[in-house]
């Protein structure tokens, strides 16, 4: 529902004040803190109208108003765009990613960084495995019958598997097999690995099959493995801050949700949808325990795949700050992973 300019200014003032002070907002506070250009009586009239229209609620008869989920939604949708982080914060992000060794360390650091920038709980989901492509396959002989298989994906993920060859395996050319694996898989999506490996297995000399078969099996297990999908969490302690959430029961329920990795993966996927940056507010969350929360999420490209990052906080979160930080960190994370690729 569209609001006239005066109602919109009053609603913005109420939301901003409640975010800052966590106390119901009355007409007196609005007059003292905001230059709304109207009388206290007019402000009281506008507050009553906004409550009737569902943007504000009145917790107690004598208290001021607080925003409803609809009030927060109007506020977020009317923000004139995501801001920029301060230069010092931009520098902090750039330094934070210096010297990261692998994808897991990068994502773990990202969760800690995002939590510190926003003071909310941060969540980072790795790039989707089934959208990734093979960048390189390496084979390293660790013994007469032991080979280390290393798969490097364009998303920055590195998978390693130790393979013990059968006792009847004949000596073979490890370098030649590595070249054939790279010719078959380099640049291919993981979803096409089975087909490409099947063609490779048909082409190799028969005496290579005792070596090739266990290596092919190991690659197919990596491709089909979903247990490596996880959510990197940072700043869970922010959930327990005073006035963050109403009651210990809510905090306990949130911690239980955070312990369920696949629930979080689905939650973030549903929240972001097809958007690059998304805000899910209160009752818009499908999970009952999350309906005291808001979730700000962004997508970060990584090679041919994409992951998701986000922050979880109370509906009384500082939305502009959260949106700015999430979008900035997503951009830096994507840049880091693209640099790793090249």
Give structural notes:
- It is built from twelve helices and ten strands.
- The chain has helices spanning 5-21, 27-33, 40-52, 69-77, 87-96, 103-118, 174-185, 193-203, 209-224, 248-258, 261-272, 319-341, and strands at 56-57, 66-67, 121-125, 134-143, 146-153, 158-164, 232-234, 277-281, 293-302, 305-314.
Name its key features.
342 residues; alpha+beta; Arc Repressor Mutant, subunit A; Beta-Lactamase; Enolase-like, domain 1; 3 domains; five-stranded antiparallel β-sheet; three-stranded antiparallel β-sheet; elongated
Concise synopsis of the structure shown:
Helix content is 46%, strand content 18%. The protein is of the alpha+beta class.
Number of structurally distinct domains:
3
Q: Tell me the CATH topology of the largest domain.
A: Beta-Lactamase
Number of strands: 10
Instruction: Report helical residue fraction.
Output: 40-55%
Which homologous superfamily in CATH is the superfamily of the largest domain?
GAF domain
> Mind describing the biggest β-sheet?
5 strands, antiparallel
Per CATH, the class of the largest domain reads Alpha Beta
Summed over residues and divided by their number, the pLDDT gives a mean of 86
Low-confidence stretches: none
Strand numbers in spatial order across the main sheet: 7-3-10-9-8
CATH architectural category of the largest domain: 2-Layer Sandwich
Ordered list of secondary-structure elements with their pairings:
Layout: H1 5-21, H2 27-33, H3 40-52, E1 56-57, E2 66-67, H4 69-77, H5 87-96, H6 103-118, E3 121-125, E4 134-143, E5 146-153, E6 158-164, H7 174-185, H8 193-203, H9 209-224, E7 232-234, H10 248-258, H11 261-272, E8 277-281, E9 293-302, E10 305-314, H12 319-341
Antiparallel strand pairs: 1-2, 3-7, 3-10, 4-5, 5-6, 8-9, 9-10
Helix pairs in contact: 1-3, 2-3, 6-12, 7-8, 8-9
């Amino acid at each position: 529902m569209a609001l006239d300019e005066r109602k919109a200014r009053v609603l913005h003032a109420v939301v901003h004040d409640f975010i800052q002070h966590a106390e119901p907002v009355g007409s007196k506070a609005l007059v003292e803190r905001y230059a709304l250009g109207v009388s206290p009586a007019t402000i009281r009239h506008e507050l009553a109208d906004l409550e009737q229209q569902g943007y504000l609620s009145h917790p107690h008869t004598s208290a001021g108003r607080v925003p409803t989920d609809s009030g927060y939604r109007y506020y977020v949708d009317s923000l004139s765009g995501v801001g920029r982080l301060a230069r010092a914060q931009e520098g902090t992000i750039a330094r934070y990613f210096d010297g990261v060794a692998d994808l897991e360390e990068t994502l773990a650091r990202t969760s800690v960084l995002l939590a510190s920038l926003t003071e909310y709980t941060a969540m980072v989901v790795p790039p989707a495995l089934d959208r990734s492509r093979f960048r390189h396959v390496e084979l390293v002989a660790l013994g007469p019958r032991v080979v280390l298989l290393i798969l490097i994906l364009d998303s920055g993920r590195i998978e390693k598997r130790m393979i013990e060859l059968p006792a009847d395996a004949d000596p073979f050319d490890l370098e030649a097999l590595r070249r054939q694996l790279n010719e078959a898989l380099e640049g291919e999506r993981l979803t096409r690995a089975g087909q490409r490996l099947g063609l490779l297995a048909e082409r190799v000399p028969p005496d290579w099959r005792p070596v090739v078969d266990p290596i092919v099996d190991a690659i197919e297990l990596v491709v089909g493995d979903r247990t490596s999908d996880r959510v990197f969490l940072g700043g869970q302690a922010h959930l327990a801050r005073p006035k963050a959430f109403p009651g210990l029961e809510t905090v306990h329920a949130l911690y239980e949700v955070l312990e369920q990795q696949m629930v979080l993966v689905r939650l973030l996927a549903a929240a972001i949808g097809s958007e690059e940056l998304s805000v899910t507010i209160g009752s818009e969350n499908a999970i009952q325990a999350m309906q005291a929360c808001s979730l700000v999420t962004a997508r970060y490209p990584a090679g041919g795949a994409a992951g998701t990052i986000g922050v979880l906080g109370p509906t009384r979160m500082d939305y502009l700050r959260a949106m700015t930080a999430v979008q900035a960190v997503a951009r830096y994370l994507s840049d880091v992973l693209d640099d790793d690729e090249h």
